[in-house]
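Suppose you are handed a protein chain with no further information: no name, no annotation, nothing but its sequence. What can you learn? This example shows the usual starting point.
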Amino acid sequence: MAKRVRAKKSLGQHFLTDLSIAKATVDAFNEDGTLKNVLEVGAGMGVLTKFIQNREDLKLTVIDIDKESIEYLKKEEWVDDSQLINGDFLAIDLKDIYGDEPFGILGNFPYNISTQILFKALEYKDQCLEVVGMFQKEVAERIASKEGSKVYGITSILLQAYFDIEYLFTVHEDVFDPPPKVKSAVIRLKRNNVKKLPCDEKLFKQLVKVSFNQRRKTMRNSLKQFLTDDIKAMNLFTRRPEQLSVQEFIDLTNLIESSRPSPIVR
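A reasonable first move is to predict its three-dimensional structure. Written in structure tokens, the prediction is:
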């Protein structure tokens, strides 16, 4: 046991020991019954795995970078060998698992790659319709926060552009082995109806990142390289980036795009 704890701790993983929290996390997934495929990321010793496997509505696949976790699950026979993948979630092509089928992601995610897991889900947004996961509390708050919050930022906007996000509940340190030094939280992301943003998506991402990289400045100062004389006097640019909603960043993108001089066609 001690060896397993050390091995997973090096990956930022802590074992959840409270079964009621494990069940509540799994119960929060696929409440509307629209999904069949679920990928559990970082199963550890299988505390979530057992509850997922008991769900008749779900077809489970497990991926874990830790070979010891995979071998443990094989030994306990909670899942078939065909459902287990020993590999790096961040490196794998999820189409190799699901083809073009829709799927969801569930897990008690390693803290040190939890945001990367969500951006991987974002890459597959046409197929990944739901994510339910446990995160460090401050990370969960940042992901779910709305405009006006001090923790609202790049991650909030880029994910909320395509997902409806709910902060479900807080998880205290004493329900893990070893206990982390921070509180955790479970959040749910459900794919919204936006197939493509009604703006230049590349420019949208660029403007969001540039704005928040200088979040203490007004938009007029942080985005001055993008602004023409005819729009930089607008009241919009007297605000700071955390005051703008996702929709306002979309509108901002269209405004800047439309203000650019048209290319000369020869």
